[in-house]
Design goal:
Elements lengths: L7 H8 L4 H8 L3 H18 L3 H6 L37 H15 L7 H13 L3 H9 L14 H5 L5 H9 L14 H7 L3 H9 L14 H7 L8 H9 L16 H8 L3 H9 L14 H7 L3 H9 L14 H7 L3 H9 L14 H7 L3 H8 L12 H9 L13
């Protein structure tokens, strides 16, 4: 008896006894078997192929994804329905995306679980992080868990702030995700938004109740993170900083270990006039001190940031300030053997007579620290070739290039 004479139920029972290759061969013999066995093959593939169908449908291939925005105010959940009058994207002329949608639909209908740990941990988070908006909406349409968490306890909000798709971020907030959720390191979405210079995310999160003074696992706030990002300015840096400052964060928040505020951190890395003006304009104390008693001026001198030093002094920083160990900013520059900074501070009016180390006067201190040209610049004044305060032994040392001994004089041979 031919198989074609058997009822559909018996043919499916026969298929249960065959391997996928034989089922595929049977499905290709005629249209009836194809219609009957093709869904059976889909089901078998879904259950045995370890998510290969979803891997195809959600593969990160943005070059093949094209869409046309209709309106920024459309209902996010009505995405992609071809007949919807409010759909956000047009898919009718996008065969690739329609194929992906069909693959996901067939996978779900045939047993794929988009709420599984695999789907949450391996694709949904990657899709959000990579700002693959189309794939995200496909996952949402077919039942992926918007409240899923990664192994390190991050929510989709943590991943969304790394990208540029504000629609995804709005949708997640609308779905009730906690804007102050912490991952296993104690980091909130706002802290990550600052780290990734996402000014739109900073505004959206803050508008929806995010704590602008929340601290991450290291005890830093979003303001600390933004102030410490090194120069040159990445794209969006000042937009992100201004976005955060709009919500009035605690300007005197201190880092737990060193007691630094945002101004200390800022002059340590970039310290240009625009940044300093922004922070001072928010009421930061230019004479604020960290745990060691150092002011922002000390920090700028320590890292050799001449422009920051000049700008801080122009805005009223005291050049005579000393830290808890009694070091002035001039002495800090000398101990760092920074002749350029030493000359800058002398030009700005630093008092050389106050600088001593182990009883050694300032000029001999310069010699001992091998700041030969700084000593020369100090002794020679622009108004005339007048030598100030040096005896012949000191000039002999400078002219010979011999390293001075511990008392400022040359070592004996």
């Amino acid at each position: 008896m031919s198989l074609e004479g058997l009822p559909n139920e018996l043919i499916l029972q026969v298929a249960d006894l065959l391997d996928p290759t034989d089922i595929n061969a049977l499905a290709q013999t005629n249209k009836r078997f194809h219609r009957l066995l093709n869904p059976y093959l889909y089901r078998q593939d879904v259950l045995s192929a370890e998510h290969l169908a979803l891997n195809f449908a959600l593969r990160p291939d943005p070059a093949t994804i094209h869409w046309k925005k209709q309106s920024p105010d459309d209902d996010l959940y009505e995405f992609y329905h071809p007949t919807s009058s409010i759909n956000s994207f047009t898919l009718s002329n996008n065969p690739d995306l329609l194929t992906r949608n069909a693959t996901i639909r067939l996978s779900v209908e045939n047993g794929e679980d988009l709420k599984s740990k695999w789907a949450s941990d391996n694709f949904l988070f990657d899709i959000v992080c990579a700002s693959q908006e189309c794939n995200f909406w496909l996952m949402m349409k077919h039942g992926a868990d918007v409240h899923a968490k990664s192994p390190d306890n991050r929510t989709l909000l943590h991943e969304a702030v790394k990208g540029s798709r504000t629609k995804i971020l709005r949708y997640l907030i609308k779905e009730g995700l906690d804007v102050n959720a912490r991952d296993s390191l104690g980091t909130t979405p706002l802290c990550l938004a600052a780290e990734h210079l996402n000014d739109r995310a900073i505004r959206l999160l803050s508008d929806n109740g995010a704590d602008v003074d929340a601290r991450d696992g290291t005890g830093w706030t979003a303001l600390h993170t933004l102030a410490y990002i090194p120069a040159p300015s990445p794209s969006g840096y000042y937009r992100s900083l201004q976005a955060l400052l709009y919500y009035n964060p605690d300007m005197d928040a201190r880092t737990p270990r060193t007691g630094c505020n945002a101004l200390h951190l800022a002059v340590s890395h970039r310290g240009n006039s625009k940044l300093i003006n922004l922070l001072l304009g928010m009421g930061m104390d230019i004479e604020s001190r960290c745990n060691g008693g150092s002011t922002p001026l000390h920090f700028a001198v320590t890292v050799g940031n001449v422009k920051a030093v000049q700008h801080l002094l122009d805005n009223g920083a005291k050049i005579t300030t000393k830290d808890n160990q009694g070091r002035s900013v001039l002495q800090t520059a000398i101990e760092n053997q920074d002749s350029r900074m030493t000359k800058c501070l002398l030009d700005e009016g630093a008092d050389a007579s106050t600088v001593v180390k182990g009883g050694t006067p300032f000029l001999r201190h310069l010699l001992r620290e091998k700041l030969l040209w700084t000593a020369v610049n100090y002794l020679w004044r622009p108004e005339g070739d007048t030598r100030v305060g040096a005896d012949e032994s000191e000039w002999d040392v400078m002219e010979s290039g011999i390293d001075p001994g511990p008392d400022g004089m040359p070592e004996s041979s």
